[in-house]
Structure formats: structure tokens, C-alpha cells
Amino acid sequence: MKKQPSFQLKHVTRLVSLALVTLSASHLSLAQTSATDLGTIGASTAAGAFREESVKGTATAVAPTQASLEATQPQSIITREFMDLSVSPIAEYSRIVNIAPSLSGDSANGPGLSETKTTLRGFSDDQYNITFDGIPWGDTNNPAHHSTSFFPASVIGGAVVERGPGNASNLGYATFGGSINLFSKKPMAEENTTVFTSLGTWNTQLYGFAYETGRMADKGDATLQLNYQNLSSDGYLSYSAVKSQNYALKYERPVGDASLMTIFSTYNHIDYNQPDSNKGATLTQIAAFGRNYQLDNDPTSMNYMGYNKTSKDTDFSYLRLRSDLGDGWSTDNSLYTYAYNNQTMSSTTPTWTGTLPLTSDPRKTASDGTRTVTANGHIPGIDKQNKYRVWGDMFKATQKMEEGLARVGVWYETSSTDRHQYDLDLTTGGYNRIESTANANTLAGTNRPIDSVKFDQQSSIKSIQPFAEFEWAATDSMTVTPGVKYVSITRSVNAAVENTSRDLNHNASVTYKTTLPFLTINQKINASMSVYAQYAKGFQIPDLNTFYITDPTKNSTDPQKSTNLQLGIVGKTDEMTWDVDIYQIDFTNKLVSVTSGTPAVTQYVNVGGATYKGVEGQMARVLGGGFSLYLNGSLNSAKANDTGEQISGAPSMTAALGGLYNAGPWSGSLIYKRTGNVHQKDYDASKAAIGGVSYYDYYKTAAYGNLDLGVAYTLKNVTPQTKNLKLQFNVFNLTNSGKITSISTGSTVAQDTYIYQAPRSMMVSLKADF
User: Fold this and answer.
1) In this predicted structure, what is the pLDDT of residue 200?
2) Quick one: pLDDT at residue 434?
3) What is the DSSP letter of 47?
4) Which of 49, 166, 368, 496 sits in a 20 to 30 Å window from 689, CA-based?
């Protein structure tokens, strides 16, 4: 596998060019426009996560999570202030939002040092949206996300977790389970330069700087933000080092008298060592090498770090224009693109602990049972590529009238993906052919034997989602918002060798269509309390794996859907913020592979589903003297309709409890987050007991928790040039808990793999503002 260095250079050049272009644009005729108050046009997502204006020391100001009095579905607003104090400086978004009710997930390699697949009410990572400044992003094979690959904590200004499909104007491929909405940082009014560094356990090092021009009166009141960070760590897991760099730029300026233009661009590069499966170690490996075993430094081993490495390049950019057109009309348009390029080399059987040579080679017990070593006992592996580019545009037009707000819009997106997986002889770097040769011909345009190709596939998605909604001011204290969204998504595949089915020159295209209704209500009881209710339909785009059959056009074209019923109450005073909600979500049209007929034909059909229901709450209370108390929790049921049992991957509960302090130069937090027991495998009556315990209960992990401590001291005006100097100390998993967080089944029980909590880790950080 060859690395592509030009990708990094190209996108760094793009960021530099954007900076020069945006600064040059300040000298155009538009630079003479006066500062304009754009009202709501410049609020909300333009300024970071939404939060009511608050006075320092009030509950609204200190709450780690809270809901808005205008909420129409359960939500958790997470501020930059909480992130700065209580979240690891090297974190990515999953660690930030994990504080919220009904969210769970843990990093095996240490906070921020490996990808984390967060669950939301038991919905997996590909069953809810993640957006950045309102733009949904995710993989193109399914709408899953790579938490370390796009947006580090240093470029995130806040987050809003929405536990529901939202209104018709909420866009994405998986409104099915809700949305995690990330926001860029709000521009500062004054010029500021920040230099920051963090040093921590496992030789973790973070260095970076951020620069803000402030509002430039001589350049049309434009603002420019630049951010750079460099992260390196050995990681908790053995021989699992991580290195990454991130560059980000954000430029804003008024255009004319009533428009605001925003340009944002970020580029991220990351290198790390891990097997492609990355599902932990077997009990045998753990007994021999410890809970942190993942790789070693032995070239005769399947787990040699040099055989298991990944390089990823990603970029994300948008041009946004928000305008007040007069007569109550306003528009919001975002033109965007993002890309992901994953180049991975990995061994095929990381559960093996032996070395070469052996007469009987256990590496022949690979999961598919067909691939083996080449002559002389060489190491078998794969060359994997997942590379895509996405282009899209989101347009919304709103008219404000006496009766309320009418909003219409459309989202269009197209993507192109190039994926392959080739079998390698890792010892020589040559091809590794399947043991039983199926096709000795070469792949068209290459000298690669077809029997060394697991798949070579190009695919695309074209999606259009028009919507309309009306936020009706039914009374002075009640808003009722009906809406409707139409979804049309076309998946197309052109594969020289198809995945799983191994069909040659496989071409197929399927269009999925559905209409989704929405209805939300918000009733203000008084100035400090409101109630809300929601009825909404969500959906999820079918996975690309539904094309891994001979004739995908026989699949059902009805996407998986959810029907959401939710009710909640929100209260806010200077002393306390609190909210409670109940929900029931019916998941239908689950796509399941079915083989029938003579000759046998495989297709995906809609069957069954699940019912999700529960209760959630969050609260922050000011105690006085700079102290405040925080609490949240959820009871979550996610049961399959056919068995009535809790589905796999869905925690039974979550809870968080903590104390915060902020007075004078000192600030601190001590927060415990707990995740309930989880069935790692679905109930299956046909599965035998293991060690006298039912299969279902054998793969059930116990509840676990992390207690995190953060303490900071801020000095002001240390020198004439220094505005603030902040010294911070964090401890993560303070109690050194080491429970199992995940179990993945192997071809035998002996090959089951386990992931544990990363142990206690510490970090010292220094940040200086000039």
C-alpha cells in the first residue's frame, strides 16, 4: 500500500489560499459597508451552540448540559466553557457529548486516542446524524462516523444533542435516532492569539495555537480565525501510537446591508497503528500480555505493528450566505464539500499469538476460512482503501409573518466513493491468493489476480430532500409546527469485483423514496417553564452492504423508519436548570437478508423492528460560593419486537453526577458518568449455553463508569503582553476502573475479543492568551 503525500500538501495549500483570498476580499468595494445588526441571521449556528444569554454564576451559565425553553424535543446544550474545564484537551466530539443523558461510549486507547462509536438511546453510530454548523456528514457506505478524523476539540465551539428527528428542516441520512450537532467557535470581538500545550500519560503531547483578528472595522467588520494543533501519543494499548495534525480556518464578514458570509475550512491528517478489525484481544492474549495488548514489535507475528497501520486524510469546507431580504423574508444557503481518504494495511487474524515457523499454522482459521499464508509461512494481510468526496448544497427560505414563520427549502447532495480490499503477503508486499483459486485472470487494467481481490468497487449517492414547515404562533405562549419532508435517494454501484458476492463487473442502482410528516408543540407555562411534545417520522438510508448480492434491484425500496412520540418539560431560574422527558420510538422496516427459491436468490426485505422507550432528565443547581451541582440520568429500553428482549449495544441506563466550582482564579469539576449493562449480542434461542450460562447472558457486560477531575487556575495580566495564563490539571478515570466495555464474538469462543476501560490517566495543560 502506497501513501499519497500529495493529498496533505494539496489541502494545506487550499487552507493557505483561502486565508489569502478572504483577506484580499476585505479590500473590495464591500469593505465600505457599515456594521449591520443581522439579528437572527447571525445567531444560532453562526455563533456556536445555542444558549440563552446568561449572567455569570447563574445555573444557565454553569450547567454542563441543559435544554432550551424553546425546545420541541429532548435536547442537551453543551458549552465551550464545559469543554475547556472538564473534557480532555485531546478529545474529539464523542468525549464531549458523552456527558449527555442516554449517550454512551468509551475510547479503548485512552481519551481522544482512538475512535469511539457512541450510542444514543441504544441507536448505533450509523442510526443518527452528526452535523457541523448544520451540515450533516458521515461515511458513504453507511452514515457512520469516524470520531478522530474530522473535528478535534480545539475547533469545536459547542454542541447540541437532539434526541429525536427534529422538524422537517432537520436534514441528513439518519434522522432515525436523532442528531449530534457540532458548532464552530464564535468569533471574538477583539484580536487574540492563544498558544496551548498539554502533556499527559502514555507520552501524550499536544501543541497548538489559535489566532483571532477580532472584528476588523477597516475590512468591513470581517473576522478571521485560524487554528492549528499537533497531537502525538503512544496510547494505552500496546504499540498503538497515534499522530495527527489539524488546520482550520473560519472567515466571516457582512456583505451589503443585510447579509453575512461565512467561509470555513479544515484539514485533518492522522496516522495510527491498529488491526483493521480493532475489536480487542482474546482472553488468551490478555492472560499472556495484559489487558492493553493490541500489537507487538515482532516481524514474525501476525500482530506486528509494522503490518497494522492506517493513514487518513480528511477535509471539510463550506461557503455560507445568510441574508435578510426584507418584507419578512430571509434565506440561508450553504454550499459544501468534504472528503475522507483511508489507506489501511492490516493482518487478517490478529487473534493469533504465535510466531513463525510452525508446522500447523493457526492463521488458516481466518473468519472466512478461505485465505491463508503463501509459501514459506509468510504473513497474510489486506490492503484496504475507503476514499470518497461529497458535494452538497442546503437552501432554506423563511418568511416571518404575523401568524408565525413559514420555512421551505431543499437539500441536495452527491458523493463518489472508491473502495477496495486486496489480499497481501505482508512479508514480501506481494499478492496473497485465495487458497482455492476461483479465478486466475487479472483484474482489468492491472496485473493483480482476481482471486487476490476481495472487492474493488466504485459507488455513488444522489440525494434530494425538499421540505416545508410552518412555525405557527397559535397564542402568545404556544407555537405549533407542522411540517413535511420528501426523501429521494439513489444508490449506484459499479464494481469490478463485488464485496461478499464476488460478482464480476457488477452494476446496480436502486432509488429509495419516502415522505416524512412532523408535528411539534411548545407551550410556555410562564417565563421560567415550558412543555413540549413531538410526533415525527425518521428514516435511515439503507447500508451499502444491501448491494452485496447478485441483483440488488430485488431489494425492498422502502427505507428503515422510526415513529417518534416524545413529551417533555423544561424549567429555568437563576438557581436551577432542569428538564425531564419521556419517549417511545417504533422502529420498522428493518432490512434483513433472505435467501429463498430455486435457484436460491438473496435479497433484502423489510421485516420486524424494535421499540425504544424511556425517561431522561438533567439538572444543574447553583449552591453558592462558586459551587454548583450537576445531575442527569436515563432509563432506556430498546427491545426487539420479535423476541421482546433488549437488543445488542443498547445500555439499560446512563447517569452522571458531579460538582463544579468557579470563583476568582480557580475553577474545577468532578464528574462521574455511568453506563448501564449492555447485551453485546442479540437474543437467539437457537444459540447454546456457554459454561452453563445462556448465550444471551454470557455476552452481557456489566455497568461501568468513569470519574473525571479537572482543576484550573487562571492568572490575568501576568505580563503587559499576556491577557490570561491558564494552568490546568486533569485526571481521567480517577478510580482506575477496568471493566469490560465490549465483547465481539470470534469463530470460536476462544477467539472472542474483549475491550476494557483505559486506566487512570493524567494531563497537565497550559494556555496563554496574548
Assistant:
1) 96
2) 55
3) G
4) 368
Cα gap 589→609, rounded to integer Å: 6
pLDDT for 51 equals: 53
Catalogue the E-assigned strands of 127-191.
129-132, 135-136, 156-162, 179-184
pLDDT of residue 746: 86
CA distance linking residue 163 with residue 436, whole number of Å: 49
Q: Which set of grid coordinates corresponds to residue 425?
A: 503477503
Q: Indicate the residue type of 403.
A: E
DSSP state of 98: T
Q: Which residue has the cell 464545559?
A: 82
Distance of CA 516 to the CA centre of its chain: 24
CA distance 184 to 226: 12
Cell numbers at residue 308, please? Answer: 497494522
What's the rounded Cα separation, in Å, for the pair 148 and 532?
A: 35
Residue with C-alpha cell 500496546?
238
Cα–Cα distance for residue pair 287/298, rounded to 1 Å: 19
Beta strand 242-255 pairing with 259-273: antiparallel
What's the N-to-C CA distance of the chain in angstroms? 45
d(CA 432, CA 450): 11
H/E element, 393: strand 380-401
Q: How far apart are CA 123 and CA 651, in angstroms?
A: 10
Give tens-digit pLDDT for 169-188: 999 999 888 999 999 999 99
Q: Which residue's C-alpha cell is 445462556? A: 694
Give the position of cell 453562526: 46
| pLDDT tens digit sequence for 115-134 | 888 999 999 999 999 999 99
| pLDDT score recorded for residue 502 | 85
Classify each residue of 444-481 as buried b or exposed e, where b means 16 or more C-beta atoms within 10 Å of its C-beta: eeeebbbbbbbbbbebbbebebbbbbbbbeeeeeebbb
Q: What is the model's pLDDT at position 674?
A: 97
- If you search the block for the grid coordinates 438533567, which residue do you land on? 618
Is there a contact between 576 and 621 (Cβ–Cβ < 8 Å)?
yes
pTM of the model: 0.91
Under 8 Å between Cβ of 333 and 394: yes
So what's the pLDDT on residue 657? 97
Q: Report which DSSP code applies to 215.
A: -
Q: How many CB atoms lie within 10 A of CB 736?
A: 11
pLDDT at 448: 84
Q: How far apart, in whole angstroms, are the C-alpha atoms of residue 496 and residue 498?
A: 7
Q: Which residues of the chain are under the pLDDT cut of 50?
A: 1-9, 11-13, 15-49, 356-375, 435-436
- Report which DSSP code applies to 48: S
From the list 589, 672, 587, 671, the residue with the least C-alpha distance to 637 is 587
d(CA 619, CA 657): 10
Three cell numbers at 248? 482550520
Within 8 A by CB and 6+ apart from 273, the residues are: 239, 240, 241, 295, 305, 308, 309, 310
- In SS3 terms, 217-272 reads as HHHCCEEEEEEEEEEEECCCCCCCCEEEEEEEEEEEEEECCCEEEEEEEEEEEEEE
- Give the dihedral of Cα atoms 475, 481, 482, 486; nearest 10 deg: 160
In the three-class reduction of DSSP (H, G, I as helix; E, B as strand; rest coil), residue 553 is classed as helix
Please give the domain boundaries of the chain with CATH numbers for all domains. Answer: 5-769 (2.40.170.20)
Strand 179-184 to strand 129-132: parallel, antiparallel, or no bridges (unpaired)? parallel
Cell numbers for 708: 473525571
* Cα 143 to Cα 125: distance, rounded to the nearest angstrom: 8
